[in-house]
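Please annotate the following for my students:
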Amino acid sequence: MREDQGELTAAVPDGERRLQLYAYLQAREHQRTYLEIMRLFASTLLADLSAGEVAGALAGAERAGRVEPGESRIESVIPRLRQLVEWGNLVHGRRETVAASIAEFQHGSARYQVSKLAVRVQRDVDELLRVPEGAREVSRELLPAIERGLRELTRTFQVATGDDPRAARHATELLSEQVTTLFLQHAELAATVRDFYAYLGHVLARHHLAPDEISGFRDLLVDYIQKVVEDVLRHTPAIADTLAGLTGRRGELLTLLGPAERLGEDVERSRGRTEDDWRELTDWFVDRPGRPSQVTALREATARAIGSLLASVKRATTGAGLLPGRRAELLKLARWFDEAGPDGAHALYAAAFGLHSARHLMPAPDHDADDEHTPWRDGPVLDVSVSVRSRGDRGARGRTSRIVDDPMTEQALLAEAREVDAQRTAAVRELASAAPRLGEARLSSAALSVLCDLLTLAMAQRERADDTGSAADPVRGLRLRLRPEEGRTTRISTAGGVLTLHDTAIELGAEGKTE
């Protein structure tokens, strides 16, 4: 049985196995017990506990009401621990047990430890439960710190690669400290920006805002967001220039920070020790062809937020559109329901919605999602339509449009699509035939359009000017490869002129090989 279970666990893909670590958070039963057990294991370094020790710790949680009565009994704790082991949150520990009786030995011989990924899951859960519902302040002060840190890192890197061995050794140690600090600062800045704009988008997506909310968000957008964007735009050019100067020497920098082979492939290294970390940092501040930076996305998100707020202010001040709304009345009705008793809630429901009790002569319908054991506050959320929350009107508007069958238009569109596909196929054939003598051939406008599309995709893959790039049309079997070559000039004659590419070689060929 043990071997079969091990083979079954090994057969589960790594992604699904890791997602099982979250199973205890949505367990159908004993959810609070699982959460309390995981908090116990995650709160102590190198925790190695037996079922009896866990039961003793749960006794205090049971007296405080954090777990259900009877959950601290050893007979209940053992199956909970085994279930957490099956999900992958806990692993069996190894430690000799000194026991005074057989029962004590049985309860203390099986010991448990928490896995590394389970600690991270529990840490994220506790952090999420502590997060308030309001906006998160953006750490603007980290931007000048990142700019200064990059300048100092560049100077230290120059000393570390210099001719003085003693100064280089000291600079290498300082370089590790500066890289770690830089990436920690950037991670905090990126997290605060994402959280702030996620909250802002959630609020602005609401169709109706109260006047005090509009006033508060107006001050927030005009004052706070403007300062954030100004700080980002002021410090971004210097940060981008410094990162561009380090792009060509990343390999040397990573070598100084220590190769990953020293620690093994399974070791999770600190941020800033891999090529992907530096690429992610650069993409946050620097635009690339086809890949706008996060600074550009932040500027565009700010413009959309200001536009949404101005639309809300216009609706509230001019009285146009769906206002005046019924939001205040609906909130008052919800407060009455919350304060009413069972009998008063039934009467209030009948008076407000005109739905009185009825006798069903047919079999009862199936439940949609919840059951009679689910409180209304934990049940599914009903989406209130715009007409109800704005005008209190539940009537249907308009009627369903009749579906018109237009075979002539359908055939015309199909013929047009076939013609476009045929033109694309002919252009690809022309490029494929001209591949061996691309510099001598004269391409048509359609072939030039296909070539420019492939060139754009290939250039978007390159991060530096000396990188290669490739793009393909997999449907028609054409591949383009872009290769930097010093001193080479590629000229392609077309019907509209001559396309000139400096220090670049182009190779065209069938999908899977290039010529």
